[in-house]
Amino acid sequence: MNLVPIISSNFIINVAVTSWFLAQLLKLIFTLLLTQKLQLERMFGSGGMPSSHSALACSVAVAMARKLGFSSPVFGLAFCFAAIVIYDAMGVRRAAGEQAKVLNKMIFDFPFFKQKHREDGNEPTSPEDDSVTLIPKELKELLGHTPFEVLGGCILGIAVALLMPMV
Q1: Would you give the distance in Å from CA 26 to the centre of its chain?
Q2: What is the mean pLDDT of each run of 10 residues along the chain (167 residues)?
Q3: How far apart are CA 137 and CA 152, in angstroms?
Q4: Global confidence as pTM
């Protein structure tokens, strides 16, 4: 009996969705264990261990290799796609998350950012409107991944692609 439910008749989509779902579920579980709080946002949010982006991209590449062979042009394309996703997760997105941490600290630790609303409830019409101080929105800090988180995602994605039965 097949323990993995079939999402579609497409093996590649089944592998991709399963690896993404498992990575997100593991993020939720790891966060619960570390913080003792159920944070359902971790089921859909980016960042954290393991990287769901890396899991999905690696699982697709390995599934393509299983289905079409390593010499297939489609495997070559999937491999390049996975490399770009991994590079982006550890590079640009991680740097953006680090910058968001610094900006959040600057914005919310300085006293001149007071949380005040206009008395009439309307949005300010111009920057000169001194009847209100804008409430800054906290920037999302969990954007990218450490190399360890990416490695975890890659291992998960490869395992899913190797263990799922081909349809």
Answers
A1: 12
A2: 61 94 91 81 76 94 96 96 89 66 66 51 55 56 73 95 90
A3: 31
A4: 0.68
Give CA separation, 122 vs 87, 119, 126, 130, in Å: 44, 8, 12, 13
Angle between helices 11-35 and 147-163 in degrees, nearest 10: 140
> Can you tell me which residue has the tokens 């999402």?
7
SS3 state of residue 139: coil
- 46 Cβ contact list (under 8 Å, min separation 6): 52, 53, 93, 140, 142, 143, 144
Tokens of 4: 């993995």
- φ, ψ of residue 14 to 5 degrees: the values are -60, -45
Handedness of CA 8, 13, 15, 16 (dihedral sign): negative
Amino acid in position 127? P
Question: What's the longest Cα–Cα distance across the chain?
Answer: 68
**Cα end-to-end span (Å), the chain:** 14
Q: How many residues does the chain have?
A: 167
66 burial level (CB within 10 Å; 0-12, 13-18, 19+): middle
